Amino acid sequence: MMHLLSKIAVNAPSLLAQAEAATPETRELTGTFWLPEGASTLAPGTDFAFMAITWLCYFFFAGIVVALVYFCWKYRQRGTEVVYQADAPVHNTPLEVGWTVLPLLLVVAIFFMGFKGFLDLSTPPRNAYEINVTAYQWGWNFKYPNGATSDHLVVPAAQPVKLVMRSNDVLHSLYIPAFRVKKDVVPGRYSYLWFQCDEPTGIVAEEAMNTTATGYHLFCTEYCGTDHSNMNRKVFVLAEAEFEEWEEQKARWLDVMPDEELYSSAGPKIYARCANCHTIDGGANTGPSWGNPTSGSLAGLGEIWKRTTAGTTPVTGGTKGRPGTTLADYIGEGKLYATTEDYIRASIRNPGELLVGGFGPNMPSFKGQLGDRAIDALIGMMKKLDEFDAAGKFVDSGN
Asked: Same structural domain for residues 230 and 343?
């Protein structure tokens, strides 16, 4: 059973402040040889079906092997003389009926057990709490009814939760082993998954969320590209009152942040969603580096704000771009984008409009996921990139 997360007392009463100061509690591996410890209301039924079939396999495997070895020994040929028995039995009706009817009854029982389990897993309760899930290369976005979003899944305890899932690009699959739930997330369609976990786990600071700290593992189980393993996330279960406070704080954290702290405090948190494809130190990756690229078509053009403002970035196409042009042809008074900020905002929300030389249309759209203040935080970060280290962590230039 999960223990409540111990938290360090802090002056600020808000849940987010407490989470930042929380000391992660390591959860030891438990469960059976085959399965981790079940943590949802669906787990007992799934585990029973799994173990029933597993022990049936053990039983028949052992019985067949023992019978095979015994018959090989008992009826082995002795010497070189072959004795033919004309009156030897050619069949045994009770035995033949038995090995036909018994397996038939067993597979019928397995079918009904599996069918009932399938219906239970596929039919969310009417009062389920809905969370919208967007899968993309390479991460997850979880959006809550009040507009709050998170990279890790946070759910209320003792309440059914329904995930409404879609993919921005390729085939993904959401899997939570401890809850015994898994469902493919297919481009162009919605898929549903539900579960209920009654035991709260607490929550930890964001920088500890990808460690072995308290929380259940969430994986993508369909290989979706080079950074497929970066889609590993955690599921945190909070008591009802704690969850409501977390949800409210999560929805408002950008709104209450002072403008002068937006780029330094919010920027790195939001950049964590960009880091799968964009580096800060100029290194090559799936998308253009924010730093001064060391190779490729952008090499030597400077950091992203410098080369974008100067308009030297080559453009090779897109829904609004033409081969052989540069950003200078699209940014400026009377052009497609009036300012550099307008271009960056459009690149985040509609990344296929212009394709940067050397890079394909790989970036998913963040329209509806990142609001204006979130984009302002990223733009501010790009303008002062020298104040951040290679991992995107803010480094106070005054110290």
From this structure: no
Query: The CATH number of the domain where 283 resides is what?
Result: 1.10.760.10
**What phi and psi values does residue 225 have, to the nearest 5 degrees?**
135, -175
Q: Is residue 305 assigned to a domain?
A: yes
Cα separation, 273 vs 266, in Å, equals 12
Question: Environment class of residue 284 by beta-carbon count within 10 Å: exposed (0-12), middle (13-18) or buried (19+)?
Answer: middle
Same domain for 42 and 12? yes
pLDDT for 398 equals: 52
Tokens for 114, please give them: 């599996």
pLDDT at 25: 47
Q: Produce one character per residue of 128-165: b if its CB has 16 or more CB atoms within 10 Å, e if not.
A: bbebbbbbbbbbbbbbbeeebbbbbbbbbbebbbbbbb
Q: Does pTM surpass 0.70?
A: no
Domain that holds residue 226: 1-71+124-241
In a domain, 40, yes or no: yes
| Rounded CA separation 331/318 (Å) | 15
